[in-house]
Amino acid sequence: MNLEDFIREWQARPLPEFINREGSIRIKGKLAPAVIGMRRSGKTWRLFQEMRDLAAGGVDPKSILYLNFDDDRLYSQNDVQKGEGLLDEFLETFFRINPGIRRKGAYFFLDEIQGIPGWAAFARRIIDTENIKLYVSGSSAKLLSSEIATEFRGRSFPFELLPFSFREYLRYLKMDENPSPLDRSEYENAFLGYLSAGGFPEAFPQDDPQIRAGLLQNYVDMVVLRDVLERYGLSNVRGVRELTHALLAQNGNLVSMKRLADQLAARGLPMGRAMVSRICTHLEDSFLVFFVPLYAQSLQKIRVNPQKVYAVDPGLSYAVSPSQSMNLGQRFEQAVYLELRRRYPLLRGTGISYYLTGDRQEVDFILGEAQFLVQACVSLKEEKTRRRELGALEKAMEELGFKQGTIVTLHERETVKTSAGIIEAVPAWEWFLARNG
After folding, report:
1. pLDDT tens track for 225-254
2. Closest among 213, 232, 222, 285 to 70, alpha carbons compared
3. Per DSSP, what are the bridge partners of residue 67?
4. Fewer CB under 10 Å: which end of the chain, C or N?
5. Integer angstrom CA distances of residue 334 from 146, 204, 293, 328, 350
6. CB-neighbour burial class of residue 185 (10 A; exposed 0-12, middle 13-18, buried 19+)
7. CATH class of the domain defined by 3-160
8. Residues 368-387 pLDDT 10s
């Protein structure tokens, strides 16, 4: 298929049906929105949503060009190593078959662009010299960090796209996103389903748990192969896979680079602490896992203390766990973290931390700039658990001067007055449908 045929086929094809995602990726001016996230999390569909909204707002569909660089037809006729030259060919071919659009203005959507050499230089040039609104997507946080900082030079703004939230999952189920308290049991059941199925769109229709698990396991293998081994030129396939599965098995727990290196060495896979740390960074850049540091004023303390690790999706964690009865509490805590990450995108990274009080009691999450604390606890019914969760929150509130704390539970609602302030226990189905912390 030549380039002209490829473009004409795209423009003749209607957009597919899809579930609307939360949030806007619209930016004023010449800045290019960059949608970043793990493979299969819905980035392509989010671009389709933007195209549909543009057309609904009066934009001529012929002024829109979409290219998916995961489409093997692009590479069968055109060597990917042409890089920027390949992109230039598409640009000129598009304007040649759509005369007048160059003057009126066009919208370019470049999907999974990170594998094309020279893409950032091309993007920077057309932003500066053409009447084009550019959108890009990619499966690497490098689009957020080094490539944008060094090559895009401030001409883009990143939007992180995680797998579906609970609210978006309800849209798939065609359930009301604003339920009444009378609907509580249905929404509690739906939330438990979400903790098992997760938020990857292609996993939703799979009724057979084994098929769903196999699909999600394949996603992990794809990230390891394409976004870590191939992208960074690593040859230790078994070591990277073992490290990946070790991290996923520790979902919601503390990990240290030294301990991970020791575990791999015990399995006959000697990998130094520096190499383990490097691969963990690659896995986080690929959005498979996230590392949450201990809250500390000193950056040095952040680096040396053990970090908590969370996988990108509770369904994925469930699918790759050694046992399908993986600890519900871990997946529940993970889901709360991911929801906080969605709501406060500017705090991702070290902005969301865990907190240890002076007497070593742990609070799951502190959002320092927003000044609030969140615990994730399946149930407060057991007295020992209740004392631990409430006690840690109260102590942290005293030390930090916060007047309120939140405990997200599966089913319970309660207001607890303490000497430090008010602690609100909120059921998950309600908290996940709220618009703030």
Report:
1. 988 999 899 999 999 999 999 999 999 999
2. 222
3. 110
4. N
5. 28, 19, 14, 10, 16
6. exposed
7. alpha beta
8. 765 789 999 999 999 999 99
Strands (E) across 53-123 are located at 64-68, 106-111
Q: Which of 425, 336, 359, 334 is nearest to 386 (CA)?
A: 425
Q: Looking at the chain, how many residues does it have?
A: 437
Residue 258 tokens read as: 């030294």
Closest by CA position to 283, among listed 303, 259, 257, 253: 257
CA 161 – CA 23 distance, rounded (Å)? 10
Identify the CA nearest to 217 among candidates 288, 112, 162.
Answer: 288
Residue 106: name the closest of 78, 129, 140, 76 by CA.
Answer: 129
User: Alpha-carbon distance 208 to 304, whole Å?
Assistant: 43
CA triple 148-165-344, angle to 5 deg = 50
Cα 91 from chain centroid?
A: 30
Q: Which residues pair with 291 in a beta bridge?
A: 309
Q: Are strands 32-36 and 156-160 parallel, antiparallel or unpaired?
A: parallel
Given a cut of 50, is residue 87 above it in pLDDT?
yes
Copy the structure tokens of residue 74: 């692009």
Phi first, then psi: give them for residue 314, nearest 5 degrees: -65, -35
Model pLDDT, residue 145: 54
For the chain, which residues make up each domain, given as ranges?
3-160, 167-431
C-alpha dist (Å) from residue 6 to 12, 47, 80, 384: 10, 18, 16, 64
Please give the radius of gyration of the chain, using alpha carbons only, rounded to the nearest integer: 23
Q: Taking each helix axis as running N to C, give the angle between helix 84-97 and helix 3-12, from 0 to 180 degrees, rounded to the nearest 10.
A: 60
Burial of residue 177 (number of CB atoms within 10 Å: 0-12, 13-18, 19+): exposed
Half-sphere exposure of 171 (CA within 13 A, CB side): 13
Q: What value does the mean pLDDT take over residues 42-52?
A: 95
Tokens of 60: 């001529």
State the pTM of this model.
0.92
